[in-house]
Write a structure and sequence with these properties.
This protein is mostly beta strands. The chain has strands at 4-5, 13-15, 22-26, 30-36, 42-47, 54-58, 65-73, 78-85. The strands form two sheets. Strands 1-8-7-4-5 form a five-stranded mixed beta sheet, with no helix packed on it. A three-stranded antiparallel beta sheet has the order 2-3-6, with no helix packed on it. It is globular and about 30 Å long.
Length: 87
């Protein structure tokens, strides 16, 4: 059973937002990150090392717009966060 929750500022931090070329995720237990477009289709997937606290994602190939990050956790939960890409 996968729980879908908004972020708690205590759990995962994402910055900068809006972003241009890179975003940084900070948090424990992140297994992978998917980027979804406005229609919910996956347009990028980033495996991570769950033991690492800080993850940098290159988003320079994305067009300007609003995207959804789906963050898959090692405990099988997933969390969603909106990001804005500006150029």
């Amino acid at each position: 059973n996968t729980a879908i929750r908004d972020y708690s500022s205590d759990m995962i931090k994402i910055f900068p937002n809006p972003a241009r070329d890179w975003i940084v995720l900070e948090g424990k237990g992140i297994k992978s990150v998917e980027i979804l477009n406005a229609l919910g289709s996956e347009i990028g997937s980033y495996p991570t090392t769950a033991s690492t606290f800080r993850h940098s994602l290159n988003i320079s190939s994305l067009s300007c717009g609003i995207y959804l990050l789906k963050i898959n956790m090692i405990d099988e939960r997933c969390q969603f966060q909106k990001i804005i890409v500006q150029k």
